[in-house]
């Protein structure tokens, strides 16, 4: 097949790639580039900019974009992007014949068969990797994404918007945090806490509960302070985050009947050391009569990196009869 544009677009970065695909084969990445979303006025502008980089390759008329959110008709429903997205307006403005939008973690799940086991690290369960299906793919980034990957079939991936389902407290501290959050929002969803932006909702709540003044105003500052150990409250914040994330991962594995869990997302890589301290695994395993079952449901951390663009390309390879301007 001729090359096409694929993208993995989150609230912070758009990872763009020129790829060549064929059904049943791993996508071939010909070029890769990362764009800061806030530096562009629209998704179409990013697509045009990337296409212009490859003008010598000929006219690029097809694109698949893995993007955070849910497509409702022509409009993408998302609270984390810096601009609104209309499928048809984006296609026309970008000068494309074909444009497909798919959920970003649906794309990550499509990339699972192409993982290099050597790049995975164990957070719970067996240290020797083997694919076990269905696999839950979960990831805190700017928001919180999730999808379920099956072994095969005509629909190997089940997309999800679990980031917007209600956040559940699992201990007294989390109940107090949830009480504070519910005073601000009538619906407190998972990504209000379990995401990069969520960390900056969690941190002020802990400051209020502990009677400590706010010191950090960005996620990056908070994580850095926790990593150096210079701020005990920052350390507690990341540990609470990891425990809460472990609890949700276990709940979703049970709900979906997952046989393995892959933790992706940009935040996971930044807090890898905290994920290994024990709170994540303890809460993941704390599932009553199913605790022993969870011990046999391994969790792997995987670097998000290029998974989104690989998955978007793999999706296209399996749906290459996409009709112009539609999203399947």
Task: Please summarize what this structure is.
This protein has 328 residues and is α/β, with parallel strands linked by helices. Helices cover 37% and strands 21% of the residues.
SSE layout:
Blueprint: E1 4-9, E2 13-20, E3 28-36, H1 43-53, E4 62-67, E5 70-72, E6 75-77, H2 87-94, E7 98-103, H3 104-110, E8 121-124, E9 135-140, E10 144-149, E11 157-160, H4 172-182, H5 196-210, H6 219-228, H7 232-256, E12 260-263, H8 266-270, H9 272-275, H10 279-285, H11 291-295, E13 299-301, H12 307-318
Parallel strand pairs: 1-4, 4-7, 9-12, 12-13
Antiparallel strand pairs: 1-2, 2-3, 5-6, 8-13, 9-10, 10-11
Helix pairs in contact: 1-2, 3-12, 4-5, 5-7, 6-7, 7-10
Question: Total helix count?
Answer: 12
Structural class: alpha/beta
In total, the number of domains comes to 2
Q: Secondary-structure element sequence?
A: EEEHEEEHEHEEEEHHHHEHHHHEH
The side-by-side strand order for the widest beta sheet comes to 8-13-12-9-10-11
The major sheet is characterized as: 6 strands, mixed
Task: Provide structural commentary.
The chain has 12 helices and 13 strands. The protein is an alpha/beta fold. The chain folds into 2 domains: 120 residues, ATPase, nucleotide binding domain (Nucleotidyltransferase, domain 5); 185 residues, Hexokinase, domain 1 (3-Layer(aba) Sandwich), CATH 3.40.367. It has a 6-stranded mixed beta sheet, with helices on both faces. A 5-stranded mixed beta sheet has the order 3-2-1-4-7, sandwiched between helices. Strand 9 and strand 10 form a beta hairpin.
């Amino acid at each position: 097949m001729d090359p096409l544009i694929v993208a993995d677009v989150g609230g912070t970065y758009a990872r763009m790639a020129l790829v060549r695909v064929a059904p049943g084969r791993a996508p071939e990445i010909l070029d890769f580039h990362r764009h800061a979303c806030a530096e562009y006025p629209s998704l179409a502008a990013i697509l045009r900019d990337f296409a212009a980089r490859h003008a010598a390759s000929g006219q690029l008329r097809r694109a698949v974009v893995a993007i955070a959110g849910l497509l409702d008709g022509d409009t993408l429903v998302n609270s984390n992007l810096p601009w609104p997205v209309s499928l048809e307006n984006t296609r026309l403005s970008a000068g494309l014949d074909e444009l497909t939008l798919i959920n970003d973690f649906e794309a990550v799940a499509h990339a699972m068969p192409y993982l290099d086991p050597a790049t995975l690290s164990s957070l719970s369960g067996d240290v020797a990797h083997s694919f076990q299906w269905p696999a839950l793919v979960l990831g805190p980034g700017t928001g919180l994404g999730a999808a379920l990957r099956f072994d095969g079939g005509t629909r190997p991936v089940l997309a999800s918007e679990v980031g917007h389902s209600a956040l559940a407290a699992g201990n007294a501290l989390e109940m107090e945090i949830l009480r504070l959050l519910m005073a601000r929002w009538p619906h407190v969803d998972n990504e209000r806490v379990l995401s990069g932006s969520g960390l900056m909702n969690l941190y002020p709540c802990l400051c209020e509960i502990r009677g400590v003044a706010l010191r950090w105003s960005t996620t990056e500052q908070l994580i850095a302070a926790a990593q150096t150990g210079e701020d005990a409250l920052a350390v507690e914040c990341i540990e609470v985050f990891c425990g809460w994330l472990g609890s949700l991962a276990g709940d979703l594995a049970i709900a979906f009947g997952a046989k393995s869990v892959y933790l992706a997302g940009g935040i996971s890589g930044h807090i890898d050391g905290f994920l290994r301290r024990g709170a994540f695994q303890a809460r993941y395993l704390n599932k009553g009569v199913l605790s022993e079952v969870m011990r046999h449901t391994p969790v792997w951390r995987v670097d998000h990196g290029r998974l989104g663009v690989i998955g978007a390309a793999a999706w296209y390879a399996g749906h290459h009869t996409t009709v112009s301007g539609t999203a399947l």
